[in-house]
Amino acid sequence: MKNNNFKIAVFAGDGIGPEIMKEALKILKIISDHKNIDLQLQEGLVGGIAYDNYGTPLPDSSLELALQSDAVLLGAVGGPQWESLDYSLRPERALLGLRGNLGLYANLRPIVAFDELLDASPLKKNLIQGIDIMIVRELTGDVYFGKPRGVKKGKNGKRKGVNTMVYSEDEIRRIAIRAFEIARTRQKNLLSADKANVLETTELWRDVVTEVGQNYPDVTLKHMYVDNCAMQLIRNPAQFDVIVTTNLFGDILSDEAAMLTGSIGMLPSASLGEKTALYEPIHGSAPDIAGKNIANPLATILSAALMLRYSLSMPRDADLIENAVTETLKEGVRTQDIHQPDKKIIGTEEMGNHVAKNLRKLLI
Ligand code: NAD
Hints:
2 domains, globular, binds nicotinamide-adenine-dinucleotide, two-stranded antiparallel ribbon, Isopropylmalate Dehydrogenase, alpha/beta, about 40% helix, ten-stranded mixed β-sheet
């Protein structure tokens, strides 16, 4: 009998989803076999495959499974065969449905430059060497949800578009607390990106983040205007530890930061709520390479590591998985997307097997 039981909802999704998920589950199984935990991995359908089977991208049974779980691990959804469907039935709606129903308000995107892959970055090696940034983006507020919104015809007969940037004090406080807590486990430097010089909403953002900071004297808080932050991410990314920002600014900054490493198949993400969280690679379902055993499973494996760290309180095991990935890259094996001239190209399953082998070594 194991001491800790965790229920994990597993949604492989579409395209390369099933292939990359299989490798992540292989890694989780090794952890659960070696440790005193019982990981109950319960698979469900979301996305295009759910639409094909149930006529909806997020069936009630899948939502219920997610709501009853300690965490959700997701592959990717979407594909050309579902692109002509009504917007409400598209595979991607499942993501919005999960985020909304699970109350996932904090999106975390770690940006780590692996020494072995520095050549993949469009930036000079010396700029990105050693970068380890965590972007904490607020996920449920801001212009994406604020009202009024829409396009209306004005009295002069011309159309006018409106979106509303809105944040309550409580929404800002809870994301700030998350960011300070995360900074505490890292280098203890938190940068809050806003536009407090021209937007009152983010003036409030700055005030509340500063207030929350008084409870975290061990963390150094700095504020930066988001336009400068976007520039600094390219100019000198190594200066950042944790960045916290609004939904809109985070959407843009996190994609910009993702490209620092240049390898989409390597980047995991976490979306945290009060009760549960969802972990997924940042890339999509890559229909162009689906079913060919060439997709890179490392972003999904690294997402599973984040799940251990943030949902299952197993930070050491998360470190071990990340170290096993580093060891694998050091061995000189690469999937096609991160290929370098002198390295050996291997497939999705082989890559999973290499990480599994290295993890087993680290667990001894
Ligand atoms: P994509 O991320 O799927 O693919 C972009 C490019 O990167 C492709 O050339 C692809 O082959 C490559 N790529 C992506 N992941 C890879 C991996 N793990 N290993 C190797 N190469 C990889 O983005 P896209 O082509 O714009 O979208 C394809 C589908 O995915 C669309 O239906 C889109 O809506 C959906 N999508 C889903 C998510 C999600 O599930 N979270 C996110 C983005 C896009």
